[in-house]
Amino acid sequence: DSGVTQTPKHLITATGQRVTLRCSPRSGDLSVYWYQQSLDQGLQFLIQYYNGEERAKGNILERFSAQQFPDLHSELNLSSLELGDSALYFCASSPLGGSGEQYFGPGTRLTVT
Amino acid sequence: GQNIDQPTEMTATEGAIVQINCTYQTSGFNGLFWYQQHAGEAPTFLSYNVLDGLEEKGRFSSFLSRSKGYSYLLLKELQMKDSASYLCAVRVDRGSTLGRLYFGRGTQLTVWP
């Protein structure tokens, strides 16, 4: 158990819908990262937050958005869902002052039908 | 962008030793990480190298040569449970992107009895 929690574990929804994925980082970690992992792709970095501020953006679609709240939990919002958005979505957190190792949550498996 | 290469697949026999290589080309390099990921599960942190040389941690060791842009993960006394994908990731600190990890596509290791 990494200490990072994600909800829900599974999500099945239809094309065109909107969903919100939630992540709580390890206690004391200020950085949160979101990744997408499809069957035929590696881990794709989406976005990074540090203490509530957006720090870096990767290959995140305009239909996707995220935020980190004052209590440091983060939410990833996916809208106008397409079949190709079906994937595992991971959240990770890393401690301040460490080597940069990231600890991953168990992931949310999103299926768009 | 970053270029991280590792073999797609490897196979080995229980009890044997296997070496998984990773090469990278990046600017702002500040460390290399190895993660293990079982199918459908979250990546788990295995090792970290920032200086040249070998880091040993039980049955797993990781080596780094910064001048050659090269790392390997060495797994000894292989067990069936070591069958998993092994991800190489480099930390890049450049500009405002502090602590971002760039992941390779992973090496799928299959251990046979």
Compact summary:
The complex is a heterodimer of chains A (113) and B (113). Chain A is mainly β. Chain A has strands at residues 5-7, 10-13, 19-24, 31-37, 43-50, 53-57, 64-68, 74-78, 87-94, 103-104, 108-112.
Q: What is the CA-based Rg of chain B, rounded? A: 14 Å
Biggest chain pair contact, residues each?
A: A-B, 24 and 24 residues
What is the global morphology of chain A? globular
Succession of helices and strands of chain A: EEEEEEEEEEE
Descriptive overview:
The complex is a heterodimer of chains A (113) and B (113). Chain A is built from no helices and eleven strands. Chain A has 113 residues and is mainly β. In chain A, strands 2, 4, 5, 6, 9, 10 and 11 form a seven-stranded mixed β-sheet that branches. Chain A is globular, with a radius of gyration of 13 Å. The N and C termini of chain A lie far apart (31 Å). The relative contact order of chain A is 0.33. The radius of gyration of chain B is 14 Å and the shape is globular. Classes of the chains: A mainly beta (113), B mainly beta (113). At the A-B interface, strand 5, strand 9 and strand 10 of A face strand 4, strand 5 and strand 10 of B.
SSE arrangement:
The complex is a heterodimer of chains A (113) and B (113).
Chain A: E1 5-7, E2 10-13, E3 19-24, E4 31-37, E5 43-50, E6 53-57, E7 64-68, E8 74-78, E9 87-94, E10 103-104, E11 108-112
Chain B: E1 3-5, E2 9-13, E3 18-25, E4 29-37, E5 44-49, E6 53-57, E7 60-65, E8 70-75, E9 84-94, E10 97-103, E11 107-112
Parallel strand pairs in B: 2-11
Antiparallel strand pairs in B: 1-3, 3-8, 4-5, 4-9, 6-7, 7-8, 9-10, 9-11
What brief labels describe this structure?
heterodimer; A: 113 residues; mainly beta; seven-stranded mixed sheet; four-stranded antiparallel sheet; 11 strands; 0% helix; 51% strand; B: 113 residues; five-stranded antiparallel sheet; globular
